[in-house]
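Thread: "does anyone have the structure for this chain?"

Original post by V.I.:
We have the sequence but no experimental structure in hand. Need at least a predicted one for the grant figures.
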Amino acid sequence: MIRRAVIVGGQGAVGRLFTERLLGSGIQIVVVDPAGAGTPAPGGARRIHGDITDVSPQLARELGKADMVVLAVPEPVALAAVKGVAAALRPGALLVDTLSVKQRVDEEFRAHLHGVEAVGLNPMFAPALGFEGRVVAASVAFDGPLTAELLKLVESWGGRIVRVEAAEHDRLTAVSQALTHATVLSFGLALSKMGTDVEEVARIAPPPHKTLASLLARVSSGTPEVYWDVQAANPQAVDARSALAEAARRLADTVKDGSEEDFAALMGKVRGALGAELDNYRELCARIFANV
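Reply from O.Q.:
Generated one for you, tokens below.
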């Protein structure tokens, strides 16, 4: 049973989200963070200063007493931490990561963890939105009773668990996150290059522009570190960005050198990319536009 948990990076947005929800579920929490000395942890949690990539005797004792350790840190930190954390964990404990890319940390889990459970969770939403009604991808490296308990806890908070292998997770998030974010950021770069007064555009902007501009406002106002990890840490994001660049060139070439029939064929091809989800997304768009 999960009674005590250590949250590494508990001062960050994702770490704070897990800290608050675990506290609300009656679990004792110790927050470990090297930054922000003196910054209070969420109410009810105990905060200690420590470097998870260089485990001190004090930190090792805390890790050894925990039923669960959550690495809510950037990928380079998590990868550097696994071996040292593994040495401190008690048998049967659970190690959790919250990275947006899973294959490399899954490999570290399998290389260094023995006699413990391990699962990677990726909340597919900004932490400020909360778990309610939202997907949490779960990549289980070493299953067991604590893993099952944690996944049930996430579901009790309103999250929807989707189990996926690490490699499949990264393939899917290269499309759902890396490609999507790259599209939104590229739209912003194009706006900047064109130099048109945004307020003038807003006066006549139709719903598609307002929707994309709203996405740009949200993404560009987010934490750069998060979006950098999505683009830089996932090896398959390279192909996603290349596909986006190629698609923009193909559209430009079709308009420049093709005919209206060629353009209609292009629209048919992109419509087909949505497959069986076409009607669902079309209806969702209609609901969004009704409020824009």
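V.I.: this helps a lot. DSSP finds twelve helices and eight strands in the chain.
O.Q.: and The mean pLDDT is 95.
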